[in-house]
Amino acid sequence: MPVPIFLPSALAAHTGGQRQLQAEGPTVGAALDDLVARFPAVGPRLRDAAGEPYPFVTVYLNDEDIRLANGFATTVREGDEIVIVPAVAGG
Q1: What superfamily in CATH does domain 2-86 come from?
Q2: What does the pLDDT average to over 51-76?
Q3: From residue 12, how far is each of 15, 62, 69, 73 by CA, in Å?
Q4: Which stretch of DSSP H or E encloses residue 60?
Q5: Can you tell me the distance from the alpha carbon of 26 to that of 44, in angstroms, rounded to the nearest whole number?
Q6: Which one has a higher pLDDT value, 56 or 62?
Q7: What is the pTM (predicted TM-score) of this model?
Q8: Residues 6+ away with beta carbon under 8 Å from 5
Q9: Whose CA is closest to 59, among 45, 46, 75?
Q10: Among 53, 56, 57, 55, which Cα is nearest to 27's?
Q11: Are 52 and 29 in contact, with CB atoms under 8 Å apart?
Q12: Is residue 89 scored above 80 in pLDDT?
């Protein structure tokens, strides 16, 4: 079952400009793996070398921060949406 993944403009630069993509997987991590398999340049911007999420990149599943659930092991169900939001600095 495909799940939509919404990317910010900064990451869409690595997906040919696409900000909404479809991915497959039973968990958030598996869906992101599917996305990275098609767009490898996105991978290092989502996870560190150990495969853990960066603290400055927030991944939401239906408006819920996955860090407050099971992280990348959070189950994806039909109708869910994944939104990736990088931290923005400025002043």
Answers
A1: Beta-grasp domain (3.10.20.30)
A2: 92
A3: 5, 20, 26, 24
A4: strand 57-61
A5: 21
A6: 62
A7: 0.90
A8: 20, 21, 22, 23, 31, 32, 35, 81, 82, 83, 84
A9: 46
A10: 53
A11: no
A12: no
